[in-house]
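request received
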Amino acid sequence: MQILLNGELLATDARDLQELCAKLGFAEAKVATALNGSFVAAGRRGLTPLAPQDEVEIVAPRQGG
Amino acid sequence: MLELYGERFTSRLLLGTAQYPSPAILRQAVEASSAEIVTVSLRRESARARAGQGFWELIEQLGVRVLPNTAGCHTAKEAIATAEMARELFGTSWVKLEVIANDDTLQPELLGLVEAAAILSGEGFQVLPYTTEDLSVAERLIGAGCTVLMPWASPIGSARGLINKDGLKALRAYFPDVALIVDAGIGAPSDAAEAMELGYDGVLLNTAIAKAGDPVRMATAFARAIEAGRLAFEAGLLEPRDMATPSTPVAGTPFFKIDRVS
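response:
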Protein backbone atom coordinates (compact mmCIF):
# COMPACT_ATOMS: atom_id res chain seq x y z
CA MET A 1 0.00 0.00 0.00
CA GLN A 2 0.96 3.62 -0.40
CA ILE A 3 1.24 5.95 2.56
CA LEU A 4 2.54 9.48 2.92
CA LEU A 5 5.65 9.44 5.12
CA ASN A 6 6.88 12.90 6.12
CA GLY A 7 5.11 14.36 3.11
CA GLU A 8 6.48 11.86 0.56
CA LEU A 9 4.83 8.81 -0.98
CA LEU A 10 6.10 5.49 0.33
CA ALA A 11 5.16 1.94 -0.64
CA THR A 12 5.15 -0.28 2.46
CA ASP A 13 3.71 -3.55 3.71
CA ALA A 14 4.08 -2.52 7.39
CA ARG A 15 0.86 -3.37 9.23
CA ASP A 16 1.26 -0.88 12.05
CA LEU A 17 3.30 2.15 13.05
CA GLN A 18 5.75 0.14 15.12
CA GLU A 19 6.51 -2.16 12.19
CA LEU A 20 6.97 0.85 9.92
CA CYS A 21 9.46 2.43 12.35
CA ALA A 22 11.39 -0.86 12.57
CA LYS A 23 11.51 -1.28 8.78
CA LEU A 24 12.89 2.26 8.44
CA GLY A 25 15.61 1.58 11.02
CA PHE A 26 14.05 3.77 13.74
CA ALA A 27 13.38 1.01 16.27
CA GLU A 28 16.05 2.33 18.67
CA ALA A 29 16.20 5.91 17.37
CA LYS A 30 15.09 9.02 19.24
CA VAL A 31 11.96 9.75 17.22
CA ALA A 32 8.32 10.67 17.85
CA THR A 33 5.37 9.84 15.64
CA ALA A 34 2.02 11.17 14.47
CA LEU A 35 -0.69 9.60 12.33
CA ASN A 36 -3.07 11.75 10.30
CA GLY A 37 -2.23 14.84 12.34
CA SER A 38 -2.51 13.29 15.80
CA PHE A 39 0.34 12.27 18.12
CA VAL A 40 0.90 8.53 18.65
CA ALA A 41 2.87 7.69 21.80
CA ALA A 42 5.76 5.24 21.42
CA GLY A 43 3.93 2.66 23.52
CA ARG A 44 0.91 2.75 21.21
CA ARG A 45 2.67 2.38 17.86
CA GLY A 46 2.11 -1.40 17.85
CA LEU A 47 -1.60 -0.80 18.47
CA THR A 48 -1.90 1.67 15.60
CA PRO A 49 -2.65 -0.09 12.31
CA LEU A 50 -1.79 1.58 9.01
CA ALA A 51 -4.17 2.01 6.10
CA PRO A 52 -3.60 3.17 2.51
CA GLN A 53 -3.21 6.97 2.16
CA ASP A 54 -2.37 7.37 5.85
CA GLU A 55 -0.21 10.39 6.62
CA VAL A 56 2.63 9.48 8.96
CA GLU A 57 5.08 11.90 10.56
CA ILE A 58 8.33 10.64 12.09
CA VAL A 59 10.28 13.44 13.74
CA ALA A 60 13.53 13.87 15.63
CA PRO A 61 15.23 16.64 17.64
CA ARG A 62 16.66 19.60 15.79
CA GLN A 63 17.98 23.09 16.35
CA GLY A 64 15.33 25.69 17.09
CA GLY A 65 14.81 29.28 18.14
CA MET B 1 16.62 34.50 40.37
CA LEU B 2 14.41 33.85 37.38
CA GLU B 3 11.46 31.63 38.32
CA LEU B 4 9.48 29.81 35.63
CA TYR B 5 6.85 27.24 36.55
CA GLY B 6 8.41 26.69 39.97
CA GLU B 7 11.97 26.22 38.68
CA ARG B 8 14.69 28.73 39.46
CA PHE B 9 17.48 29.91 37.20
CA THR B 10 20.45 32.20 37.73
CA SER B 11 20.69 33.31 34.10
CA ARG B 12 17.92 35.41 32.57
CA LEU B 13 19.02 34.66 29.02
CA LEU B 14 17.23 31.92 27.09
CA LEU B 15 19.10 30.94 23.94
CA GLY B 16 18.02 29.42 20.64
CA THR B 17 20.16 26.69 19.11
CA ALA B 18 19.60 27.31 15.38
CA GLN B 19 21.72 28.92 12.65
CA TYR B 20 25.18 28.65 14.25
CA PRO B 21 28.15 28.19 11.89
CA SER B 22 28.95 24.80 13.48
CA PRO B 23 27.97 22.54 16.38
CA ALA B 24 31.25 23.48 18.11
CA ILE B 25 30.40 27.20 17.95
CA LEU B 26 26.89 26.49 19.21
CA ARG B 27 28.38 24.71 22.22
CA GLN B 28 30.84 27.55 22.93
CA ALA B 29 28.12 30.18 22.51
CA VAL B 30 25.83 28.42 24.99
CA GLU B 31 28.69 28.26 27.49
CA ALA B 32 29.67 31.92 26.96
CA SER B 33 26.05 33.05 27.31
CA SER B 34 25.64 31.27 30.68
CA ALA B 35 22.15 30.30 29.44
CA GLU B 36 20.52 27.53 31.46
CA ILE B 37 17.59 27.11 29.08
CA VAL B 38 17.94 26.50 25.33
CA THR B 39 15.19 26.18 22.75
CA VAL B 40 15.02 23.16 20.46
CA SER B 41 12.64 21.96 17.77
CA LEU B 42 11.48 18.95 15.76
CA ARG B 43 12.22 17.96 12.18
CA ARG B 44 11.07 15.20 9.92
CA GLU B 45 13.74 12.55 10.34
CA SER B 46 15.27 10.95 7.29
CA ALA B 47 16.19 7.26 7.61
CA ARG B 48 19.44 7.97 5.76
CA ALA B 49 20.70 11.26 7.22
CA ARG B 50 19.51 10.81 10.83
CA ALA B 51 20.64 14.33 11.63
CA GLY B 52 18.49 14.54 14.74
CA GLN B 53 20.37 11.88 16.66
CA GLY B 54 23.70 13.76 16.52
CA PHE B 55 22.08 17.04 17.55
CA TRP B 56 20.46 15.41 20.55
CA GLU B 57 23.81 14.05 21.78
CA LEU B 58 25.26 17.57 21.60
CA ILE B 59 22.37 19.06 23.61
CA GLU B 60 22.63 16.35 26.26
CA GLN B 61 26.31 17.15 26.72
CA LEU B 62 25.50 20.82 27.38
CA GLY B 63 23.60 19.87 30.53
CA VAL B 64 21.01 22.65 30.11
CA ARG B 65 17.22 22.58 30.35
CA VAL B 66 15.58 22.27 26.94
CA LEU B 67 12.52 24.23 25.89
CA PRO B 68 10.98 22.64 22.78
CA ASN B 69 9.13 24.97 20.42
CA THR B 70 6.28 24.41 17.99
CA ALA B 71 7.85 26.53 15.24
CA GLY B 72 6.21 26.33 11.86
CA CYS B 73 2.77 25.35 13.17
CA HIS B 74 -0.07 27.36 11.68
CA THR B 75 -3.03 25.89 13.58
CA ALA B 76 -3.80 24.93 17.15
CA LYS B 77 -4.13 21.29 16.07
CA GLU B 78 -0.65 21.21 14.52
CA ALA B 79 0.85 22.94 17.55
CA ILE B 80 -0.82 20.50 19.97
CA ALA B 81 0.39 17.40 18.08
CA THR B 82 3.89 18.92 17.84
CA ALA B 83 3.94 19.71 21.57
CA GLU B 84 2.87 16.15 22.37
CA MET B 85 5.62 14.71 20.16
CA ALA B 86 8.15 17.08 21.76
CA ARG B 87 7.09 16.08 25.28
CA GLU B 88 7.82 12.43 24.54
CA LEU B 89 11.02 13.14 22.63
CA PHE B 90 12.62 15.64 25.01
CA GLY B 91 11.14 14.34 28.24
CA THR B 92 9.75 17.71 29.32
CA SER B 93 6.25 19.12 29.54
CA TRP B 94 7.56 22.65 28.98
CA VAL B 95 6.70 24.02 25.57
CA LYS B 96 7.39 27.29 23.80
CA LEU B 97 4.04 27.51 22.09
CA GLU B 98 4.10 29.10 18.65
CA VAL B 99 1.10 29.29 16.36
CA ILE B 100 2.13 31.34 13.34
CA ALA B 101 -0.33 33.49 11.40
CA ASN B 102 1.74 34.72 8.54
CA ASP B 103 5.02 33.58 6.99
CA ASP B 104 6.21 37.11 6.17
CA THR B 105 5.85 38.57 9.66
CA LEU B 106 5.86 35.31 11.65
CA GLN B 107 3.26 37.07 13.75
CA PRO B 108 1.53 34.89 16.35
CA GLU B 109 -1.98 33.71 15.41
CA LEU B 110 -3.51 34.78 18.69
CA LEU B 111 -6.85 32.97 18.54
CA GLY B 112 -5.16 29.64 17.77
CA LEU B 113 -2.54 30.41 20.41
CA VAL B 114 -5.11 30.87 23.17
CA GLU B 115 -7.00 27.74 22.06
CA ALA B 116 -3.84 25.59 22.01
CA ALA B 117 -2.61 27.03 25.33
CA ALA B 118 -5.85 26.06 27.07
CA ILE B 119 -5.82 22.51 25.68
CA LEU B 120 -2.13 21.93 26.42
CA SER B 121 -2.42 23.34 29.96
CA GLY B 122 -5.29 20.90 30.48
CA GLU B 123 -3.00 18.08 29.35
CA GLY B 124 -0.43 19.04 32.00
CA PHE B 125 1.93 21.09 29.84
CA GLN B 126 3.73 24.16 31.17
CA VAL B 127 3.07 26.55 28.33
CA LEU B 128 5.37 29.46 27.48
CA PRO B 129 3.44 31.20 24.69
CA TYR B 130 5.09 33.31 22.00
CA THR B 131 2.64 36.21 21.84
CA THR B 132 2.39 39.93 21.19
CA GLU B 133 2.16 42.73 23.78
CA ASP B 134 -1.66 42.73 23.46
CA LEU B 135 -3.14 43.02 26.95
CA SER B 136 -6.44 41.25 26.27
CA VAL B 137 -4.67 38.26 24.72
CA ALA B 138 -2.31 38.18 27.69
CA GLU B 139 -5.34 38.01 29.97
CA ARG B 140 -6.76 35.10 27.94
CA LEU B 141 -3.45 33.24 28.05
CA ILE B 142 -3.24 33.66 31.81
CA GLY B 143 -6.83 32.43 32.03
CA ALA B 144 -5.77 29.42 29.95
CA GLY B 145 -3.23 28.51 32.64
CA CYS B 146 -0.03 30.27 31.52
CA THR B 147 2.12 31.81 34.27
CA VAL B 148 4.79 32.84 31.77
CA LEU B 149 4.22 35.05 28.72
CA MET B 150 6.71 35.68 25.94
CA PRO B 151 5.79 38.79 23.93
CA TRP B 152 7.78 39.67 20.83
CA ALA B 153 9.93 42.79 20.70
CA SER B 154 9.63 42.87 16.88
CA PRO B 155 9.27 40.17 14.19
CA ILE B 156 11.41 37.04 14.58
CA GLY B 157 14.90 37.48 13.15
CA SER B 158 14.31 41.15 12.26
CA ALA B 159 16.87 42.59 14.72
CA ARG B 160 14.72 45.70 15.09
CA GLY B 161 14.63 45.70 18.87
CA LEU B 162 11.71 46.93 20.99
CA ILE B 163 9.40 48.55 18.42
CA ASN B 164 6.53 49.01 20.86
CA LYS B 165 8.23 49.91 24.09
CA ASP B 166 5.08 51.54 25.49
CA GLY B 167 3.11 48.34 24.85
CA LEU B 168 5.75 46.24 26.60
CA LYS B 169 5.76 48.68 29.53
CA ALA B 170 1.97 48.46 29.81
CA LEU B 171 2.12 44.66 29.78
CA ARG B 172 4.70 44.72 32.58
CA ALA B 173 2.58 47.16 34.60
CA TYR B 174 -0.65 45.17 34.11
CA PHE B 175 0.79 41.81 35.05
CA PRO B 176 3.37 42.39 37.81
CA ASP B 177 3.19 38.77 39.03
CA VAL B 178 3.48 37.00 35.67
CA ALA B 179 6.94 36.03 34.40
CA LEU B 180 7.48 38.04 31.22
CA ILE B 181 10.18 37.18 28.71
CA VAL B 182 10.85 39.22 25.60
CA ASP B 183 11.10 36.74 22.77
CA ALA B 184 12.05 37.62 19.19
CA GLY B 185 13.31 40.67 17.35
CA ILE B 186 16.30 41.43 19.58
CA GLY B 187 19.21 42.77 17.52
CA ALA B 188 21.80 44.27 19.84
CA PRO B 189 22.76 43.72 23.47
CA SER B 190 21.38 47.22 24.13
CA ASP B 191 17.91 45.95 23.05
CA ALA B 192 18.15 43.15 25.59
CA ALA B 193 19.33 45.58 28.28
CA GLU B 194 16.37 47.86 27.46
CA ALA B 195 13.92 44.98 27.94
CA MET B 196 15.49 44.13 31.27
CA GLU B 197 15.42 47.78 32.38
CA LEU B 198 11.65 47.72 31.79
CA GLY B 199 11.44 45.02 34.43
CA TYR B 200 11.13 42.02 32.14
CA ASP B 201 12.16 38.76 33.73
CA GLY B 202 14.25 37.47 30.85
CA VAL B 203 15.13 37.62 27.17
CA LEU B 204 14.97 34.83 24.62
CA LEU B 205 17.04 35.27 21.49
CA ASN B 206 18.77 33.29 18.79
CA THR B 207 19.62 35.04 15.52
CA ALA B 208 21.45 38.02 17.03
CA ILE B 209 23.99 35.65 18.55
CA ALA B 210 24.02 32.83 16.00
CA LYS B 211 24.47 35.15 13.00
CA ALA B 212 26.94 37.56 14.65
CA GLY B 213 30.44 37.82 13.18
CA ASP B 214 31.70 36.07 16.30
CA PRO B 215 28.80 34.28 18.01
CA VAL B 216 30.80 33.36 21.10
CA ARG B 217 31.86 36.95 21.84
CA MET B 218 28.33 38.14 21.12
CA ALA B 219 26.98 35.56 23.58
CA THR B 220 29.20 37.11 26.26
CA ALA B 221 28.04 40.60 25.27
CA PHE B 222 24.38 39.60 25.64
CA ALA B 223 24.99 37.88 28.96
CA ARG B 224 26.53 41.06 30.36
CA ALA B 225 23.86 43.34 28.85
CA ILE B 226 21.05 41.28 30.36
CA GLU B 227 22.76 41.25 33.74
CA ALA B 228 23.36 45.01 33.54
CA GLY B 229 19.76 45.69 32.53
CA ARG B 230 18.43 43.62 35.40
CA LEU B 231 20.74 45.29 37.93
CA ALA B 232 19.62 48.69 36.66
CA PHE B 233 15.96 47.74 37.05
CA GLU B 234 16.54 46.49 40.58
CA ALA B 235 18.54 49.61 41.42
CA GLY B 236 15.70 51.89 40.26
CA LEU B 237 16.11 54.02 37.15
CA LEU B 238 15.72 57.76 37.05
CA GLU B 239 12.63 59.04 35.23
CA PRO B 240 13.47 61.11 32.12
CA ARG B 241 12.87 64.88 32.48
CA ASP B 242 12.24 67.56 29.92
CA MET B 243 14.73 70.12 31.27
CA ALA B 244 18.27 70.03 32.60
CA THR B 245 18.93 69.74 36.30
CA PRO B 246 22.46 70.45 37.53
CA SER B 247 24.33 67.48 38.93
CA THR B 248 26.81 69.73 40.73
CA PRO B 249 25.24 71.47 43.75
CA VAL B 250 24.34 75.08 42.98
CA ALA B 251 24.56 76.49 46.50
CA GLY B 252 28.05 77.73 47.29
CA THR B 253 29.20 77.86 43.67
CA PRO B 254 31.76 80.70 43.13
CA PHE B 255 30.21 83.83 41.55
CA PHE B 256 26.72 82.33 42.12
CA LYS B 257 23.95 84.88 41.67
CA ILE B 258 20.41 84.06 42.70
CA ASP B 259 18.83 86.13 39.88
CA ARG B 260 20.21 83.72 37.26
CA VAL B 261 17.94 80.97 38.53
CA SER B 262 14.67 81.04 36.57
